[in-house]
Amino acid sequence: MDAEARSRLGARRVPPVRRDSVARVARTRAKRRPAIEAEPLGPEPGPTFAEELERQGLVEATVQRTRAVIAHSNAAAVEHARVNLKVISCLDCRAPKGCCWLVTGAYLHEGVAIAARLIDEGRDTPELRQALGTAAHEMETSDTMSYRRPCVFLGPDDRCTVYEDRPSVCGAHLVTSPAMACSDSTATTVSALVGTLHTETPRQVAEQFRASLSLPPLDIPYRGALPRMVLLCLEAWHRRDHLRSLAGRVRPAVHRYRWAIR
Ligand code: SF4
Ligand code: SF4
User: Fold this and answer.
1) Does residue 32 sit within a domain?
2) 229, 128, 51, 33: CA torsion to nearest 10
């Protein structure tokens, strides 16, 4: 278990699926409303990042696969809890979401799904990007174990505002300790049900995603701090030189995150 997993103590909530989620998924993402960077950027001919994602259907494909990972992992966790006579606190958690105040990692393809949603909903603003940049820097440079900062996507009602597109680590980690312990930074009794699916399967999806976009292979997956991955995707969205932009910027972000959770 790495430092991120230890610090998160296996935390994620499972609120009820919002009724608008099915309609939102079914809706085409082709009509996204860019709040900024409406003009394609970059000197190179060819499709923008958004156009290439659209051409290959990569956003919907990876969204569905991440949801399948979470559903599969949760089913395994529920069965594990049943067999071991445990109760998963996340299933009806009404406590403040301490699990959303921790260092959170995401694969690049998971950042793409959230970026697509933010653009779709007109939430890609300079203020949001600034908040993402600040949170990313804090996550990449702070002591993981003492990091306490609300996720940029945590709403004022303590609900995830990107719930249907949340990263696999958010959806796949569940706890059997009392929910209130998750907000207690001194608690030593948080018990995580750490699944295995959220590590292996997303890595396979990440590799397929990387290869689909012809991004250069790294010796580790394209995975960094959640806010950084989303920010890099937003900044690449309308760029024709997205390959070069992403390849050049994701690699150091991946290594910064790895260093932070070492
Ligand atoms: S029980 Fe803890 S980890 Fe689960 S949703 Fe509630 S605060 Fe998050
Ligand atoms: S993406 Fe959602 S579930 Fe994950 S940490 Fe942020 S608010 Fe919590």
Assistant:
1) no
2) 160
